[in-house]
Structures are given as structure tokens and as C-alpha cells.
Specification:
Helix content: 10-25%
Keywords: Signal
CATH topology of the largest domain: Immunoglobulin-like
Number of helices: 1
CATH class of the largest domain: Mainly Beta
Number of domains: 2
Oligomer: single chain
Distance between the termini: 75 Å
Largest sheet: 6 strands, mixed
CATH superfamily of the largest domain: Immunoglobulins
Number of strands: 9
Structural class: alpha+beta
Shape: elongated
Pfam family, one: DUF4399
Strand content: 25-35%
Order of helices and strands: HEEEEEEEEE
CATH architecture of the largest domain: Sandwich
Length: 147
């Protein structure tokens, strides 16, 4: 009888812990930093429609707010993420995934290498926790041709 009560207690604790974690995870998933009014991300270079070599520099632009490294708790700041050949934005209520180029050091440009052909580039800003702002600060998607 004592063993059965211990088992029930253990199961109850596990269920309670699981529900708590799910609740905390759901709460964390929706906490997004408000985007400063008028903030805008854009790609300085290359220009939309450009033809570029396989290795080229992408310059990021941002207005209406500042750039800060990931983890820096500074108002009206974020850091860049570069989306390459993505048809849609990643989920906006969670940290931006590892399959997206991440510039958590506050970088404002990068050199990338892509195979020949047509590609799209787009910038998505993340907050100190790598979560997109609300509303998301995202550039226009540009199309380039790699020689």
C-alpha cells in the first residue's frame, strides 16, 4: 500500500512538473519585445536584382533603433539575422533558429558564399533573447543572381 501511494505521488509530481514546464514554455514563447515605432531593417548591399560573385558582402541597414549584441538588455536595440532562400518568416513567438544566419555580436555586415543561381536575402531583427520584435522588424526580400 505504501509503495502504491509513493508511485501515485511520484506520478502526480511528474505531471505537475510537466504542466509547469509547459506553462513556462508557453509564457516564454509569447514574450516579445515591442518594436520601436518606425523602426526599419533593410539591405544596403547588394541591391535587389544585382548579379554578384559566389562570395560577396551583405551590408545590413537599420533605422529608428540601434544594434546591440544578443543578450544586451538595452532599450530600442536588436541584432540581425539573415534569411537566405526562405519563402516565409520563421515562427515569431520563439527564438530564431540555428538554420538562419545569426549575427549576435552586433555585426552590420557579413561575407557569404552561395552557389550559382538565383537567391533571396532578407533581414529579420531579433531582441536580446533572439526573439523577433512585435511587430517584426524585417527587411524587404531581395533577389540576387550569383555567377
Amino acid at each position: 500500500m505504501k509503495k502504491r501511494n509513493m508511485t501515485r505521488a511520484s506520478v502526480s509530481l511528474l505531471i505537475a512538473a510537466g504542466l509547469t514546464l509547459c506553462t513556462l514554455g508557453a509564457m516564454a514563447a509569447v514574450e516579445r519585445t515591442a518594436a520601436p515605432e518606425g523602426a526599419k531593417a533593410y539591405i544596403i548591399s547588394p541591391e535587389n536584382g544585382s548579379t554578384v560573385p559566389q562570395t560577396f558582402v551583405v551590408q545590413f541597414g537599420l533605422s529608428g533603433m540601434g544594434v546591440a549584441p544578443a543578450g544586451a538588455d538595452l532599450p530600442k536595440t536588436g541584432h540581425h539575422h539573415l534569411l537566405v532562400d526562405m519563402d516565409s518568416l520563421p515562427p515569431l513567438d520563439q527564438p530564431i533558429g540555428a538554420d538562419i544566419l545569426h549575427f549576435g555580436g552586433g555585426q552590420t555586415e557579413t561575407e557569404i558564399t552561395l552557389p550559382p543561381g538565383e537567391h533571396t536575402l532578407q533581414i529579420l531583427l531579433g531582441d536580446k533573447n533572439h526573439i523577433p520584435h512585435d511587430p517584426p522588424i524585417v527587411s524587404e526580400r531581395i533577389t540576387i543572381t550569383v555567377e
